[in-house]
Structure formats: structure tokens, C-alpha cells
Amino acid sequence: MFERFTKDARAVVEGAVGHAEREGAERVEETHVLLSLLDREGTRGSFALASLGLPPGGREALVRDLAEARRRGGLSKADADALSGLGIDLAEIVSRVEEAHGEGALGAVGRGALFGGRSGRRPFSRGAKDLLTATLRVALARRERAIGDEHILLALTLRPGVPAETLADHGVTHSSLTQLLYGEGEAKAG
Question: How far is residue 75 from each of residues 11, 66, 91, 137, 181, measured CA to CA in Å?
């Protein structure tokens, strides 16, 4: 599959590994892939993000939202709302854990920074592997042989979870991307 990835798509995957390593994460997660996409310039994916309001250097709000989700232990707003419906106050749980173990303690669970670090290449989480498989499916559905960073971005918006939710909160949805990249459907930014 990776032989079909363009230079830009490969750079996104390599950048995701770099983000995981700098963070001290045990595995490369979907959020690392999104952070790597946000780092790119001069690609179809970066063009799409900029056109929908996320230019390089103007991504602080999205990065802040990803950090807040990490602080919640990787739970999305939808997860928090579901817990709230059961009478569980996630903000209170985060607060108590951070009182006992320090700020960001839930975001550090399973991370090398908390458990003494890790050397060597990070494996990809199940979600990140599924994202790469979804990327291939997106390209195949469009009948495109080469897999670009725009296909990774489209796949991220199709999968449930923090990356898609965070992108949608900033006006980047599968529908808006499809409209922008291929002229299909109706684009709605912001």
C-alpha cells in the first residue's frame, strides 16, 4: 500500500512518527497524523485546510482543542456528553486526577514520558492503522492510483473520534473537503 503513497503522504506518516516521538507516546495515534498534516505546506491537503480556514501558523485553536482532548484522556466531546448523560462529570474526574497526579496526567497515560521513555520506532495504534486503510479506500473510491495527503485528510474526517470532531469544530468536514477538492456536494466552512 505504501508504494502508492505520494511523497507528501509519506511525509505526513513520517511526521506523525516524529510527533509521537517528541511527545514520548508509546504508539503513533490518529491525532499525531492530524498534527503532521497541519505541519505541511504546499500540498493538496494543506491547501484544503488553508482554504477552509486553517492556514499554517493559524492552527493554534485546533492544536489547543487536541491538547484539551488529550488532557481528557483522549475522550471526545461526544464521549464526555455521553458520560454526562449517565451522571458522570468528566471535568470533575480530570480535575481530581490532576490534583493527585499533576496536570495532564490523563494525557500521559501509557506514554513513555510517564514511564521512563522509549527508544526506537513507535508502532501504529489500531486506530492509526485503520486510518491508513481508510485512506487507501478513499483513494480507491475516487479511482485515484496515487494516495496523497488529501486522502489522509478525507479519511480522518470520515472516522469517528477526536480528530474528526476537532476538525469539524473548525469547519473542516468530509463534505466541505469533498466540495473543495472535487467540486462535489455543498461546502460549508466554519
Answer: 27, 10, 11, 26, 30
What is the maximal distance between C-alpha atoms in the chain? 52
Nearest-CA neighbor of 12 among 29, 34, 31, 27? 34
pLDDT greater than 50 at residue 117:
no
Half-sphere exposure of 128 (CA within 13 A, CB side): 21
Q: Could you read off the pLDDT of 51-79 as tens digits, one per residue?
A: 998 765 557 888 888 888 877 777 767 77
**With contact defined as beta carbons under 8 Å apart, do 152 and 43 qualify?**
no
The tens digit of pLDDT for each residue in 97-113 reads 767 776 665 655 444 43
Coil, strand, or helix at residue 116?
coil
Number of H helices, E strands in the chain: 10, 0
CA distance 166 to 51: 17
pTM for this entry: 0.78
Which residue(s) pair with 124 in the sheet?
A: 28
Domains belonging to the chain, first-starting first, are 2-182 (1.10.1780.10)
